Amino acid sequence: MNHSIYSADRSTHLKVVVVALVAGIAVAGLSITARSGSDEGLTQTARVIKAGKPVIVTSSDASLVR
User: Distances from the Cα of 28 to the Cαs of 34, 54, 57, in angstroms?
Assistant: First the structure.
């Protein structure tokens, strides 16, 4: 029995790819289910904040010439 992935035959490579694909789909499915299942009235709403007048904040009394 050879334990190297480089010398493995085509069917072994295919098995590895299939197992990784199934595991990835399972993890994605579980994470989507856990996220949507834990939404028990904790929805967030976005508030719009309008900009006011511009404000200049400085730490010195020196004037700025541009």
Answer: 10, 46, 48
